[in-house]
Amino acid sequence: MLENVKYLIGAAGPSGFGSAEIHVIHDSQHHFFAKFQYGWTRAGRKEDWLKLLLSRICLEESYFSSVFSKLSPVGAAENYDGDISKVNHFGAEQAFLLSVLSEILNERVADIVVSNHFALSILQIMRNAVGIVDFFAMGKTGLPTGISNVDVLGCSLTILRDIRACGGTEGSKKDISGDVVDMLASSGLVELLISLLREFEPPAILKKTVRLSENQEASSTPSKSCSYKGFRRDVVVIVGNCAYCRKHIQDKIREQDGILLLLQQCVTDEDNPFLREWGIWSVRNILEGNRENKQVVASLELQGSVDVPEIAQLGLRVEVDPQTRHVKLVNV
Prior knowledge:
Elements: E1 5-9, E2 20-26, E3 32-38, H1 48-60, H2 64-70, H3 77-80, H4 92-107, E4 113-114, H5 116-132, H6 148-163, E5 168-169, H7 170-173, H8 180-186, H9 189-199, H10 204-213, H11 231-243, H12 247-255, H13 259-263, H14 275-287, H15 291-298, H16 309-312, E6 316-320, E7 327-331
Parallel strand pairs: 4-5
Antiparallel strand pairs: 1-2, 2-3, 6-7
InterPro entries: ARM-like (IPR011989), ARM-type_fold (IPR016024), Ataxin-10/CTR86_families (IPR051374), Ataxin-10_domain (IPR019156)
Domain Ataxin-10: 231-325
Pfam family, one: Atx10homo_assoc
């Protein structure tokens, strides 16, 4: 085990998060704590030994929550005592740590083993971040945003996304209760993600179409928006990954009235690159091998058509065939 060892990260932090100095100390109670101390960012390669160290103590062993809570902003760390559920504000050092762990998962997705402790801790961090982030302020950039609470939320989502693709899990080797995805689902991950999508305003193109169909003016009432570019896409990806070859999760999504909600994500959105592609992937996973879910989709009826200005400018109009109920474009 490590004892009173000081490590210096001389390379630039991932994705612009900055360089840092990390002190990792193993105390008599077998708890790790770390303190990142930001310095000048300078060019250089990321140290492999650092990633191996963090992979071992955070992803594979059970020290992540202790390390993460100790990185809380000054004056707050002593109040958490390793209990992530108590964290009500995140700092830049915590966002940096999650960004490194996310990068490790992405690079070693085929062979890394993720502990159940780590997966549940990330889910709790995401829950906390959802309650902290100001979703009424539209995010203007992708990650990193420079806003610690938003960056922690985004990194926790990307980690949850990659956990599904990991080559191994603690559950598959040590724990007979099931794999980490089922554990996360039983802990409320799917319900949380579906409720998030439901609370947010629909994708811009869908919102515009609904407004036109109902002859509405743009609402002055504020609604929740994506806190960073790609947020909606990341949520959709995780739902689709969880549903892959898991009928009980597919059923859970249907029971949460999430099928139509996921269908509404199959559109292009400039604030969420590849949302349409990931939306189609997720719907495919929700329907595969699930007769009940397919029946839900089959029972949907086309209510009518809406002519949007972009189509009208091309000299076309949208019509619905009264016999087949299929949509077609006709010349004006």
